[in-house]
Amino acid sequence: MPISMPSVKRETIVKLLLFLGLWAFTVWLMYPLIVVDDVNAVKSKDYFYRSVIGIGIMIILFGKTVFDLFFPVSTPGKATALQMVFLTLYAMFLAGGIIFMVGRLVSLYLRNQDFEVQF
Q1: What pLDDT, in 10s, does the model give residues 46-75?
Q2: If we measure between CA atoms, which residue out of 49, 42, 28, 30 comes closest to residue 104?
Q3: Sign of the Cα pseudo-torsion (49, 52, 58, 59, in order)
Q4: pTM for this one?
């Protein structure tokens, strides 16, 4: 007879695995944007849509995190100060990641453009 885990613990593990899976998927989407150095017209469509979807997922995660930070209804009791500190740091990490990825996308685009100034 197998040992059964309590339902609450199983739900927590499933939520954690789904969250980590979503982050793994997001990292996979954003990976070309992190490692690419040269942009050309042929390669740009391959990673542009992936990166935009990855940035969109990060924005959604950031919105959920900020909502959880200001309205902590998902926790069954009063949230501790340590939980709020970690949630705040996580929100800052997400905001920095979004800014970095959008900046990287714009800089790669601008690097590929030919700017000619004529007087």
Answers
A1: 777 888 888 889 889 888 888 877 777 655
A2: 30
A3: negative
A4: 0.68
